[in-house]
Design brief:
The protein is mainly α. Helices cover 70% and strands 0% of the residues.
């Protein structure tokens, strides 16, 4: 008896309303492809950012003692 009761509760869920718009399988596929593409782009960007070696030039308008200190730190590092 309980199986038939459960089945009667599931039948309304199985009915499809033709006027209701849903993304369906195509929407899921498009979303999945976009997610994989973003993941690939982030992985590629991370790899390229690790290759960047940026050394900042000393400020020409800084006081001379500040430039000497900056130059000494750059030689150490």
């Amino acid at each position: 008896m309980s199986a038939s009761l459960a089945l009667t509760h599931l039948v309304p869920l199985a009915e499809v309303d033709e006027n209701k718009v849903t993304p369906g399988v195509l929407g899921f596929i498009v979303f999945a492809v976009m997610a994989v593409a973003v993941w690939g782009l982030m992985k590629s960007m991370s790899k390229h950012m690790q290759k960047v070696d940026f050394k900042e030039a000393p400020d020409p308008e800084a006081a001379p003692e500040d430039r000497a200190d900056t130059t000494a730190r750059q030689r150490q590092g």
